[in-house]
Amino acid sequence: MKKTARLLMILFFMALITGMQAQYQNTSGQKREGDVKKKELKKKKKKDYYPWFVGGMFGAGFSSISAYVQISPIIGYKITPAFHVGTRLTYIFNSFEVAPNQRENFHDYGASIFARYVFFKGLFGQVEYEALSYQYWDKSGRDWINSLFIGGGYYMNMGGRGFASIALMFNVLDNEYSPYTNPIIRIGFGVGF
């Protein structure tokens, strides 16, 4: 009987001590190590999120009778970590040999706006509207070409602020004067700030 009473008394004091520990509150004003780590992690996450980004792409193609160079810088904003909007400027230089030792050079330029949604681990869908000032092949003048690109790709973070993307786009407003051939493959790089 004494052993049972002693055992019950020990269990009672253990339960009492455990209960006291579970009800502990930090009233001293000192920060506990776990609270400090949580706040530091929260600050770090905020610091690692850069809503503005710049970047773009560069494309080129050369043959014995022609040359093609495209430069397209972009600037954008991440409305949410998954939804990005932005604008792209485009300059395209084309050079063709029309006769031996005679070349024709053409300059096309324009701008576009785009919206991109990252829906699963870097996979995204994108819609982009572009207006491009196009120089006619006979150099009789210029005209505006409208393009609507729809497609998707993969968006990958690289080293903190950097990113890379590859996309497969289709110009659904394709016409005979379009400088693009469907499908359009885009590879771009950028940095957030």
In short:
The protein has 193 residues and is an alpha+beta fold. It is built from two helices and eight strands.
Class by SSE composition: alpha+beta
Q: Give the SSE order as H and E letters.
A: HHEEEEEEEE
Q: What is the 3D form?
A: elongated
Please report which band the strand proportion falls in: under 5%, 5-15%, 15-25%, 25-35%, 35-45% or over 45%.
Answer: over 45%
From the alpha carbons, calculate the radius of gyration and give it in angstroms. 31 Å
User: CATH top level?
Assistant: Mainly Beta
* Fraction of residues in H or I helices: 10-25%
Largest β-sheet summary: 8 strands, antiparallel, barrel
Strand order of the largest sheet: 1-2-3-4-5-6-7-8
**What's the N-to-C terminus distance?**
74 Å
According to CATH, the fold-level topology is Porin
Mean pLDDT: 80
Walk me through the structure.
There is one protein chain. This protein has 193 residues and is an alpha+beta fold. It has one domain (52-192): Porin, CATH 2.40.160. It contains 2 helices and 8 strands. The chain has an 8-stranded antiparallel barrel. The longest helix has 21 residues, at 2-22.
